[in-house]
Amino acid sequence: MAYPAGLVDLIDDLHQQGVNEAVICPGSRNAPIMLALVRHGGFRCYSIADERSAGFFGLGLALKSKKPVILCCTSGSAGLNFAPAVVEAFFQEVPLIVLTADRPAEWIGQWDGQTIYQNHLYGKHVKHFESFEAFQPHQLVQQALNFPQGPVHMNIPIAEPFYPAKGEELPLRTSPVASQPVNAVFTWEKGLLDGISHQKCLITVGQRPYDEAENKLFEQLALKGIPIIGDASANLPSACEINHDLLLANESLWPNLQADFHIHFGKSFVSKRIKQMMRQFKPAKSYLVHPNPIERPDPFQSLTDVIQTDTLSVLEELVTKDLQVNASLNTWNPTIQQAFFEKKNWNELHIYNAIIQQISKQDAEIHVGNSLAIRYINWTAAKLHGTEVFSNRGTSGIDGSLSTAVGASQSTNKLTVALLGDVSFHYDRNALWNNYVGPNMRIIVMNNAGGAIFQILDGAKDLAELGEFMVTKQRNTAENSAKDAGLSYLNAHDFNELDSVLSDFFAPSTTGKVLEIFTDSTQNTEALQSYMALFKH
């Protein structure tokens, strides 16, 4: 077996530095990497046939463990199929270690099979690239974990033969164990906040994982009357809920909502309205809190300073300040919203509201699909403050939503609920093509026969080509996919059916379950338009 010298050392170094999960895609040229991982004994290895699904499965694992997860594949287009997950991990700042097998350098560009240009395959969407010939394996973990965290890539040329002879053992490591990664320590000039007392303050929070210590401080600030705006993916406590996306639908309120001082935690927003309002009515000072020393993302187009540190230390300083209440942002009146949901009609708004009420009662985590799904949970009266919300909002693509949820389900005894539309489900149904869809998996498919978000977008909704080329109407259901995967399948066409199946859907089971909910796209659009009109005046 032509085993690459140093490969065993690389794999052992990764393990010594705390990496213990690997997602392996089948192939010949990556067989030596696979054998080094599986026979090491220190890795939990998953076998996923579809590289695109495998990449997002690994993303789900890393979201839960908050440690780097290895992705391994053969040469050629296999590595390209990791790209959507790598890009998502880059913008969500999730650590992945991508190991791609490759042809030896002399065969690149020679029309040999399964050969492409794999060095720097992911361009700027990885934090660090190394070629195996001159590797420093400790750098992979350190680069993946250094702030901002993210994916790293190593390309490994491997010559034939790929498989060991009968009875042949893997070689022993030949180099010393690499040094352990050094945890980042952040310091910042607290005097940056000295001038904010008695100023009208606004706090925005983008996508972030649930953090109990941070949430206690966010709650203290909210109870003082300081407006804290965040989507469901910000995982904020209930005290911070002000339904900003509905409140800001009335643009005549925007001038009165302008803040003197603004500070942003977390990453991106789903809601456009808060970004549009702040771009038009800019605060005098706008801070971003983030440990990233290089990038200066500015979605509000008003950034004045970056506080290069962690969220908790800034929140601890903020609660000591005498901040002025921005009363205009604390004027949310739930009466109109409550009246709308009192009488249930069979459309997605009412269905999402009912489903979220049920999910909030479960010991569960939820992975929300992109497009309409993530928006609906910001618009409904029912909220998920006791349920951690995940969503692939790094790039906001629909690919991989289900695979990420299945990956994350491996590391929890809670129910893992995937809530997504029919297009997202069918686009990623290879997420069920593996042996890891466990009994804690619950999948809700909202089937409105296409990509219905285009029916509510100004400009798109009136196009003659809308149905065929944007909504892409389809007649598929999730039933056969569920049965192929050995999952229980339930469905509902009205509230009587939904009410009768929900208790069964969430009940403990020996298999995962799929619930498919059928609605009429036109009725959904009409209900949503009527609902939004209630808040515009």
Write structural notes for this entry.
The chain is of the alpha/beta class and about 525 residues long. It folds into three domains: about 5-155, 3-Layer(aba) Sandwich (Rossmann fold), CATH 3.40.50.970; about 190-330, TPP-binding domain (Rossmann fold); about 335-530, Thiamin diphosphate (ThDP)-binding fold, Pyr/PP domains (Rossmann fold, 3-Layer(aba) Sandwich). It is about 30% helix and about 15% strand. It is built from 19 helices and 17 strands. The protein has helices at about 5-15, 30-40, 50-65, 75-80, 85-90, 135-145, 210-225, 245, 275-280, 310-320, 335-340, 350-360, 370-380, 400-410, 420-425, 465-470, 480-485, 495-505, 520-535; strands at about 20-25, 45, 70-75, 95-100, 130, 150-155, 200-205, 230, 260-265, 285-290, 305, 365-370, 390, 415-420, 440-445, 490, 515-520. A six-stranded parallel β-sheet has the order 2-1-3-4-6-5, sandwiched between helices. Strands 13-12-14-15-17-16 form a six-stranded parallel β-sheet, with helices on both faces. Helix 13 links the parallel strand 12 (about 365-370) and strand 13 (about 390). Helix 3 runs parallel beside helix 5 (about 85-90). It is globular and about 75 Å long. The chain starts with 6 loop residues before the first helix and ends with a helix. The model has no long low-confidence stretch (mean pLDDT about 90). Its cofactor is thiamine diphosphate; Mg(2+); Mn(2+). Its EC number is 2.2.1.9. Belongs to the TPP enzyme family. MenD subfamily.
Find the structural class using helix and strand composition.
alpha/beta
How many structural domains does the protein architecture include?
3
Main sheet, how many strands, which sense, barrel? 6 strands, parallel
CATH topology of the largest domain: Rossmann fold
Assign an overall shape.
globular
Helix content: 25-40%
CATH homologous superfamily label of the largest domain: Thiamin diphosphate (ThDP)-binding fold, Pyr/PP domains
Biggest sheet: strand arrangement: 2-1-3-4-6-5
Query: What is the CATH class of the largest domain?
Result: Alpha Beta
**Low-pLDDT ranges:** none
| Record field, number of beta strands | 17
Rounded radius of gyration (Å): 25 Å
Distance linking N and C termini: 73 Å
Strand content: 15-25%
Look at the structure and give the mean pLDDT.
89
* Helix count from the secondary structure assignment: 19
The CATH architecture assignment of the largest domain turns out to be: 3-Layer(aba) Sandwich
